[in-house]
Amino acid sequence: MAQQMEIDFDVPKFLHEERQKAPAQLQHYYTTFEDLYERKLWHQLTQSILEFFNQSDSAPLQIPLFRQFITEWENKINKLSLVSIALKAANNCSEIQDSVNFLNDIITKVDTDDTKDVYVLALMEAAHFKLLLNQYDDVKKAIDECDKILEQFDSVETVIYASFYRVSAEYYKAKAEYAQYYKSALLYLACVNVDDLSPEEKVGRAYDLAISALLGEMIYNFGELLMHPILDSLSNTEHEWLRSLLFAFNSGDIGKFEALAPHFSKQPLLQQSSEALSRKICLMSLIEAVFRRSSDNRVIPFSEIAAETRLSVDEVEHLVMKALSLKLIRGSIDQVDQQVNVTWVQPRVLDKEQIDGMRRQIEEWNNQVKKIGTFVGDQGGEVFAQ
């Protein structure tokens, strides 16, 4: 019966009728569709369809064209192109649930061993619409399933990675899982050309990344975000203070942190987390204090740490223990002599000021090496003479 219906469907008649409904500037596409379809030039027809779907005026025409025309020859289409076309059409469904139902049909068609990568794209985009319906459990299942599938590939098309990380980030944002959002959002940005994003989207993504970096419990290195061009979109906006706050945290600058703290009232999440942020800046200050020291000068008295972090000496031991438990530093605490011996500090991505500080350290080390070389040269003759 299904085969008989396919035979009976009058493609030229359908395209002619749809052509009459289309705006004048789009009508020529239908003539092209019919010509390419009759000549069985499937690749060229696919490209023409994609071009048509990219026209904003085509939005109300996409669903009927997909359901009535494209399904007639969908087995001739590259599956990534099929899903890409379907995703554009799904965005034009009248109801969100209709978008889910529409994509569920596509998911079934690409759920094969040979098209598992494309299956990920369709499943994640369906999850995007489910997220809009607050179907969090279904979205998490999709993320977990797709993550396992992607692990089996050496690589897939960038658009598939971009979809996976974008929707994952949307989910983690909705669930207020800041560290996971931070990771997924940065990976998404690595899959796209930031210049292709609208100014509004750039600001929105930079803002969300900044908030997640500050509130993520396990995020103590902001270097990757600070070096990313997306953060510059906050410059000269009402959110520029947030960019400055990130730099203050990254350098452990408590003075600047305190100066910017009044802005927390603009962001309820930061205001609610002010105590946690104060603890975090103290840890960042400790890391920076250790990092500034040379490797042979990392036995630090409690009193110096207290001065750096603006804590009382009695609070320093707890701070250091927290840093050790978070694996931000390694070393030991000497309670008797009230000092900390740091043997390792977490590697960091440095901003320009920190790089300049490291340059000065290297120059100092170089001068020390020269002094030792001069000393050995001066004393060497006496040693060998003896």
Key attributes of the depicted protein:
single chain; 386 residues; mainly alpha; Arc Repressor Mutant, subunit A; 3 domains; 3-stranded antiparallel beta sheet; 3 strands; elongated; disordered N terminus; structural molecule activity; WH_DNA-bd_sf; PSMD13
Roughly what percent helix?
Answer: 55-70%
Strand content: under 5%
How can the largest sheet be summarized?
A: 3 strands, antiparallel
Order of H and E elements: HHHHHHHHHHHHHHHHHEHHEEH
Rough shape? elongated
Instruction: Give the class from helix and strand content and strand pairing.
Output: mainly alpha
The average pLDDT score comes to: 92
Strand order across the largest sheet: 1-3-2
Structure notes:
With about 375 residues, the protein is mostly helical. The chain has three domains: about 90 residues; about 110 residues, no CATH class; about 90 residues, Winged helix-like DNA-binding domain superfamily/Winged helix DNA-binding domain (Arc Repressor Mutant, subunit A, Orthogonal Bundle). The chain contains 20 helices and three strands. Strands 1-3-2 form a three-stranded antiparallel sheet. A hairpin with a 4-residue loop joins strand 2 and strand 3. Helix 6 runs parallel beside helix 8, helix 7 packs antiparallel against helix 8 and helix 8 runs parallel beside helix 10. The radius of gyration is 30 Å and the shape is elongated. The N and C termini lie far apart (about 105 Å). The N terminus is likely disordered.
Helix/strand layout:
Blueprint lengths: L1 H7 L2 H11 L5 H12 L3 H12 L5 H11 L9 H12 L5 H15 L5 H17 L3 H16 L6 H17 L3 H13 L8 H17 L7 H4 L13 H11 L3 H7 L7 H5 L1 H19 L6 E3 H8 L3 H13 L3 E6 L4 E7 L6 H34 L1
Antiparallel strand pairs: 1-3, 2-3
Helix pairs in contact: 2-3, 2-5, 3-4, 4-6, 5-6, 6-7, 6-8, 7-8, 8-9, 8-10, 9-10, 10-11, 11-12, 12-14, 14-15, 17-19, 18-19
